[in-house]
Amino acid sequence: MSSMLSSALRNLPVSSAWAAGAFTRSLSCSSPFQAAAQPKTKKTLGKTGVKNVVVVEGVRIPFLQSGTTYADLMPHDLARAALQGLLTRTSVPRDVVDYIVYGTVIQEVKTSNVAREAALGAGFSDKTPAHTVTMACISSNQAMTTGVGMIAAGQCDVVVAGGVELMSDVPIRHSRKMRKTMLTLNRAKTLGQKLSLISKIRPDYFAPELPAVAEFSTSETMGHSADRLAAAFGISRLEQDEYALRSHSLAKKAQDEGLLQDVVPFKVPGKDTVTKDNGIRPSSLEQMGKLKPAFVKPYGTVTAANSSFLTDGASAMLIMSEEKALAMGYKPKAYLRDFVYVSQDPKDQLLLGPTYATPKVLEKAGLTLSDIDVFEFHEAFAILANLKAMDSDWFAQNYMGRKAKVGAPPLDKFNTWGGSLSLGHPFGATGCRLVITAAHRLKKEGGQYGLVAACAAGGQGHAMIVELYPQ
């Protein structure tokens, strides 16, 4: 497929001026922090006989570059901090919460059910069930929609969903040969048996198995896939640098103007209180252009500057049935409406989840792209490839089984408070950030419908419609 994409799409109109123009337009369109604009009046997406599920609040601790302030903590410490931040902001009684669901990707073996450990640490009752899900970069999306399903089915009224990732301390295993020897040694009964096993250990047994951010089925990293997609869709290094600079500049603007309302402070034990993300660093195209390719060398176009960095962080969201939220005196932020999950070729289309999920969720909700007021897409890799694919009739017809393209989201509505390239991407926590940011932007900008979309390892993706709660 890669060669077919390359030959068929290389002649699509591509210009670095597109990215530069988008960068300029987006900066000029981001509004200052002031009174919320009046939302447009559109139909509500509520369905007869289906419970309305609402977001009451969503928070996250600051997303930090791995190896910095959170380096000495464990994942459940971060998740606990996010849960405590949610409790502080909402004052929701702990015993009202029916269920807790968390998403994570690289699990700490000591706390494999990190949701349970974090909940107990945050003071929730030991009678409150909690479980952990994993679906790569859409793990907290899966946690949220699991909660939505529980509420819609009448099993729960109040669910806390979230996600966590700690890339500062990932599990590093002994080699398989060493693991096998150690397990056998544990079963040895006599000194002779033990010495015999030890004598068989060779130097290569000590080589550790390092975790790789790569596909098990293809052994390819997301960076390699992003490079191939960029080549297939004719996306230049300059375009990618310009988009990354846009993301960092918009994130810095949003941070400075107090728009990132989901961030809660976290007093790190033995260290200072962390109050803001530390990966937002607007640079210049000149400086970004000096970096060498990070994956496909020497001719690749994906670099450390136009990719997301390894990130530590956690998020938490309070989800309720509308009736329960109102009965408790809460003013919800948004409805969680239709959502879809998609899967596609994990090699040649690994990162195109948003391209496949967006038209499906729009059709499910009875909406068109022009109905959407706010777009929040996961940016980590290949965001421009998704925009190109969504705007290609050829791709829609040949790979998606569609008669025509869905179209690319307008940049003045797209990730205008920054995204995963600048804010960071703790794998298991990003989905909640996307949803609550969409809700905050809808209120701020006067929209009614938001569309959240993300890709994930394994060639999967997710999209959801978020509807502003009546103001």
From TrEMBL:
Pathway: Lipid metabolism; fatty acid beta-oxidation. GO terms for molecular function: acetyl-CoA C-acyltransferase activity; acetyl-CoA C-myristoyltransferase activity. GO terms for biological process: fatty acid beta-oxidation. InterPro entries: Thiolase (IPR002155), Thiolase-like (IPR016039), Thiolase_acyl_enz_int_AS (IPR020615), Thiolase_AS (IPR020610), Thiolase_C (IPR020617), Thiolase_CS (IPR020613), Thiolase_N (IPR020616). It catalyses: tetradecanoyl-CoA + acetyl-CoA = 3-oxohexadecanoyl-CoA + CoA; hexanoyl-CoA + acetyl-CoA = 3-oxooctanoyl-CoA + CoA; dodecanoyl-CoA + acetyl-CoA = 3-oxotetradecanoyl-CoA + CoA; butanoyl-CoA + acetyl-CoA = 3-oxohexanoyl-CoA + CoA. It is found in: Endoplasmic reticulum; Mitochondrion inner membrane; Mitochondrion outer membrane. It comes from the Eukaryota. It is an enzyme of class 2 (transferase). Its EC number is 2.3.1.155, 2.3.1.16. Coiled coil: none annotated. SUPFAM superfamilies: Thiolase-like. The keyword Membrane applies. Keywords: Acetylation, Acyltransferase, Endoplasmic reticulum, Fatty acid metabolism, Lipid metabolism, Membrane, Mitochondrion, Mitochondrion inner membrane, Mitochondrion outer membrane, Transferase, Transit peptide. Residues 53-323 form the Thiolase N-terminal domain. Residues 330-467 form the Thiolase C-terminal domain. GO terms for cellular component: endoplasmic reticulum; mitochondrial fatty acid beta-oxidation multienzyme complex; mitochondrial inner membrane; mitochondrial outer membrane. Heterotetramer of 2 alpha/HADHA and 2 beta/HADHB subunits; forms the mitochondrial trifunctional enzyme. Also purified as higher order heterooligomers including a 4 alpha/HADHA and 4 beta/HADHB heterooligomer which physiological significance remains unclear. The mitochondrial trifunctional enzyme interacts with MTLN. Interacts with RSAD2/viperin. Belongs to the thiolase-like superfamily. Thiolase family. Mitochondrial trifunctional enzyme catalyzes the last three of the four reactions of the mitochondrial beta-oxidation pathway. The mitochondrial beta-oxidation pathway is the major energy-producing process in tissues and is performed through four consecutive reactions breaking down fatty acids into acetyl-CoA. Among the enzymes involved in this pathway, the trifunctional enzyme exhibits specificity for long-chain fatty acids. NCBIfam families: AcCoA-C-Actrans. This is Trifunctional enzyme subunit beta, mitochondrial. It comes from Taeniopygia guttata (Zebra finch).
